[in-house]
Amino acid sequence: MKTRRAFLFSAIIFIVSLFLFSLSFGAEKVQPTGPYDSLREYIAALEARGRLLRIKEMDQDKYEATAFVYRMLDKLGIERSPGILIEKVKINGEWMEGPVLGNIYCGWDTAAMAYGVKKITDDQGEMYRAVVDRIASLADKDTVSWKKLEPVVVDKSKAPCKEVILKGEDVDLYKFPWFKNNPGDVAQYINTGAVIMVDPELGRNVGTYRCQVKGKNKIGVNPEISQHGWRFMMRAKKRGERVMQAAVVIGVDPITWAMSSSKLADLGEDELALAGGFRDKPVEVVKCETSDLYVPAHAEIVIEGEMPMDQEEEGPYGEMFGYMGKEHKNFYMNVKAITHRRNPWVINSFTGITKPTHMVPWQVSSYLKLKKLLPNLVELYSPREAIGLTILSINKRLPGDGMAAGQLVAAARFLGTAKIIVVVNKDVDITNMTQVLHAMATRWQPHPASLIIPQTWGIPIDPSAPKMFLTSKIIIDATRQLPSEGGPKSWAPVSRVLLEKKSPKSFKLVDEKWPEYWKNWNK
Predict the structure, then answer these.
(1) Do residues 420 and 390 make contact, with C-beta atoms less than 8 angstroms apart?
(2) Alpha carbon distance 474, 466 (integer Å)
(3) Number of structural domains the chain divides into
(4) What is the per-residue pLDDT across 428-463, written as a single tens digit (0 to 9) for each?
(5) What is the CATH number of the domain that holds 406?
């Protein structure tokens, strides 16, 4: 009877909580799992799951928010740290209404929510595999291509991003709480913008390029050399055009944002159509005020303008590796209009500290492509906290399998960040760094199970690279080495495997009694 009463009480509390959450987010619905139509729907779901921390105010002139995020990750780690919502921030000596959001793409459970996994748990390894399976199910396995749904145009009266329209002298970027993350940054930055451009032959490109706030109506736009945005600008310059019409969109739904931030789309593929395919419903778009570009209708903020063909100084800025970048020349935009929701929400990427999006589709695409070349591939994983490290597990059968797998990864252009490549047997959980490190410590001999590639291509902002676009790579074959590879004649059995085989009911017993073990634990 007590159990039933406790259950009813918990159910009532949960329902009341959802009701209060829905009130706090206005009319936004709270659905446990996605895909979501807007950023606000996603944030409501995060808060309903206890994955969002509200903070009343922070003084960013003292870099309080940046220091807080560092300390939060120090204490809780990347998977347990929640997203944050700061209601009021101090910037340039002025207290400004937010909210400003950060770290909202935290654990793998939130990725599972965004991509529509139905059962969400706190087991991060389980959630990683669940979201990988969900995304892999959307791909054409033969061609590794993705379903597309073209965006649908809606009237501006139905577009939340048109609730406020600013033009001419009313345009003032300093009215918005953009962050300066670090004393080394040259200025405030808009660092979660999806930049939209159109090429007459290639169509639309939606890419994430940081934007330095240079004035009340001017921003820098930083597509790196060879990125699609940079190619669009070079093509326009070759055609003799003086400016490129562009729009910077802030605060879109998680999947649309992921398509902008990842490298899933090939040149000439529309990221908004890809987002529609992943969402299984088209992205709603609306026409810009000052150009013929179309932008996501449910965005928080849209910045419209023209990008001249010439370049000027941009940066320095704290890069995604956690090191300060250098000043260099890049493009800029003269802002013609800003449209936004009433009381718009700003998302800040604490670049180099937190991860700005879930790039699982890119990882899944890389896995599926690699699987076609490497049939014995089991899993592929790139830890979010260690850019440059790629781990793969294989079903090892023959001598040389581990090293051959590592060399394929090293040569694959679609795995451009892979600099340290670790290959393990299929019994190792590659999302569990304790198991990966244990395999390296107990199964790997630096000689002969290593290969250093002295010079090959790499990503341009790696702070350790001696020259831009050049790097070296190392392959660590941490699979059990066969005798013909220099390994021992036999390997001692793994203790855990012996337990699972010889006492198969032990873990089942513990799982059944798990709540009982913890009922008296005082956190």
Answers:
(1) yes
(2) 16
(3) 3
(4) 999 999 999 999 999 999 999 999 998 887 776 677
(5) 3.40.1670.10
